[in-house]
Amino acid sequence: MVVPIVIYGSPVLRKHSIEVSEEDNLLNYSEKLSDTLKKAEGIGLAGPQIGILKRIFVIDTSPLCENDNTSEKYERVFINPIILDRHKEVGIFAEGCLSLPGIYEDVTRPDKVLVRYQDMAFNTIEEELDGIKARIFQHEYDHLQGILFIDRLSPLKKILVKNKLRELKNRYME
Ligand code: ZN
Predict the structure, then answer these.
(1) Among 75, 23, 81, residue whose Cα is nearest residue 47
(2) How far is CA 29 from CA 54, 64, 110, 154, in A?
(3) pLDDT digits over 112-149, tens only?
């Protein structure tokens, strides 16, 4: 089921999400996230971005594989994810966000992370992620803490995106 994506300016994006429990309607959450992500042709979407303040997000790299057959297709639902370890080496990558349409800026993040999460059957999985997978995981994980990629920009870049952010906020207030 495709649902509206929450846009910058909404206080929901700044809230802390709570753990998903076995009593939650997990299938409903994951279907909404996956369907909405596919429709928007994005590569990652977290609960708060569709108004669900639960610790769940989806990653689907298919849009990246369309123009580049060297990219690996990686599609997964992450429940109650945590980052166990961050690699010391960092990388720079231009990120965007479905909740911040029109804004793409370089963000520095560790290039590898060791993560733990639960799958749809609540099995615990530990995995080392690198490349684009590590990048998207960290971006989506931030959403569960109410953190947006614009918070991680250099002071100069923050000034440069200020007007675009104001426009988005005004659109939300209308
Ligand atoms: Zn995002």
Answers:
(1) 81
(2) 9, 24, 29, 34
(3) 999 999 999 999 999 999 999 999 999 999 999 999 99
Distance 2 CA to ligand 1 centre (A): 17
Q: Which residues neighbour 159 within 8 Å (Cβ) at sequence distance 6 or greater?
A: none
Q: How many residues does the chain have?
A: 174
140 in active site = yes
- Using one digit for the tens of pLDDT, what is the confidence trace for 58-100? 999 999 888 777 778 899 999 999 999 999 999 999 999 999 9
C-alpha distances (whole Å) from 15 to each of 4, 40, 91 are 18, 23, 27
The pTM of this model reads 0.95
Listed residue (73, 3, 80) closest to 37, CA to CA: 3
User: 41 pLDDT exceeds 90?
Assistant: yes
Neighbours of 142 (CB within 10 A): 19
Please identify which of the residues 41, 140, 167, 174 carries the catalytic annotation. 140
Amino acid at site 110? P
The two tokens of residue 71 are: 């990219």
